[in-house]
Write a structure and sequence with these properties.
By secondary structure, this protein is an alpha/beta fold. 40% of the residues lie in helices and 23% in strands. It contains twelve helices and 16 strands. 39% of the residues are buried.
Length: 383
């Protein structure tokens, strides 16, 4: 074991101060010292450094019954991040400040192959850079529906995109000169939950993203679990029934072929001749008292809950956060999922809280902001 150097201690204290400003802004120096437990002189030195680096802005002043009027601190929203959310159907590119406030975004159809995807994406990133004069761009964060090897920075596989072993990082870095961070979509959502939704106190939680497939982002003891080559958390590709339908990963009967949006549409088409529907269409039909649509959604919910039993038994999380279009109809999904999860609790155990994230489809993009920002604010840690 080695003692921490003064530089390590200084960086830790800097991260503490910067994160306190981020979470509680506007905040005075006196409040920073009181909340952090650091000496006022230490806080002042760090704050002056952050102001000089233009991470933090000073002002306005507050009012107290007596004594010196405090000056409040806040993050500089002229420091921005480009977020990219790649999905099988469409890709979104957006510009956000370090507080996660988005100022612009563009959506375009996702090309079928990685080369075409880069040819469509890179010019859009370059145009966003040109349109951001006067702002400091911290980097590009990319959310992907697949697993990323964080050592090689390559996409290992994305079954719903049908992409394998792809280098998106190098071409974008060369074309823009910006730092680029890639992450699995469910992991990005887990980052967003901690970074923006104040989930820091929930040390053990799982984010389940439900769309064309099913993804899971796992926090254990406050650390994001990556596993070997970033492959941890692929519960969506664990077979529930080896004789079930073929999955995009090549196996049969995976959780996502029973509990995803596409599964619900399949259930509906098996009992109805109506084709060409989207999942939001199915939600609307159920709300219009279409019995077949309601039954399809109930079947999807049952399988979602049954799949979550793996998570409950294996990880015993405090909370499971569900993200996706299904949260718009949580009155249909919630009770069914919770009943299935309750059925898995072992003697002496406690069922996790299962809660929807009503985030209007922005969780992945907000996760890309956290992905880039955490390098400066201090990572929550990875395993």
């Amino acid at each position: 074991m080695k003692a921490a150097s003064s530089e390590v201690v200084r960086n830790i204290n800097r991260g503490i101060v910067l994160n306190l400003i981020r979470r509680r802004q506007p905040l005075s120096r006196a409040d920073l010292a009181r909340i952090s437990g650091l000496q006022r002189s230490t806080v002042s030195l760090i704050v002056e450094e952050l102001i000089e680096e233009q991470w933090v802005l000073s002002g306005p002043t507050g009012r107290l019954p007596r004594g010196r009027r405090p000056t409040f601190l806040r993050l500089n929203d002229e420091r921005v991040i480009i977020g990219v959310d790649i999905r099988p159907v469409h890709t979104t590119i957006a510009l956000a400040d370090v507080n996660g406030k988005f100022s612009s975004q563009e959506v375009f159809a996702t090309p079928a192959d990685p080369k075409s995807a880069l040819e469509a994406l890179v010019p859009r990133i370059q145009a966003m850079v040109r349109g951001s004069k006067g702002k400091k761009i911290e980097g590009v964060g990319i959310s992907l529906p697949g697993r990323v090897d964080h050592e090689t920075r390559r996409l290992v596989f994305a079954p719903n995109l049908k992409w394998r072993d792809v280098d998106l990082h190098t071409p974008i870095v060369k074309a823009t000169g910006l730092e680029v961070e890639l992450e699995n979509a469910a992991n990005a959502c887990a980052l967003a939950a901690v970074w923006f939704d104040h989930m820091e106190t929930a040390g053990n939680l799982v984010v389940v993203t439900v769309s064309e497939g099913i993804g899971t982002g796992i926090l254990v003891n406050g650390r994001l679990v990556l596993g070997l080559k970033g492959m941890a958390g692929e519960f969506g590709h664990v077979p529930l029934d080896p004789t079930g339908p073929l999955c995009s990963c090549g196996s049969r009967g995976c959780w996502e072929v029973f509990g995803s949006n596409r599964a619900a549409l399949r259930y509906y088409l098996e009992s109805s001749a109506r084709e060409g529907l989207s999942f939001p269409d199915l939600l609307r039909l159920a709300d219009q008292d279409d019995a077949l649509a309601a039954r399809a959604l109930k079947t999807m919910a049952q399988y979602l809950g049954r799949g979550m039993r793996m998570i409950v038994a294996g990880l015993a999380p405090e909370k499971i956060i569900v993200i996706g279009d299904l949260t718009r109809s949580w009155h249909r999904f919630g009770p069914v999922i919770e009943a299935e999860v309750q059925a898995q609790v072992l003697p002496g155990g406690t069922a996790p809280v299962v809660t929807p994230a009503h985030e209007d489809g922005m969780a992945r993009l907000r996760g890309t902001v956290a992905l880039v920002s955490q390098k400066h604010f201090g990572s929550m840690g990875r395993m």
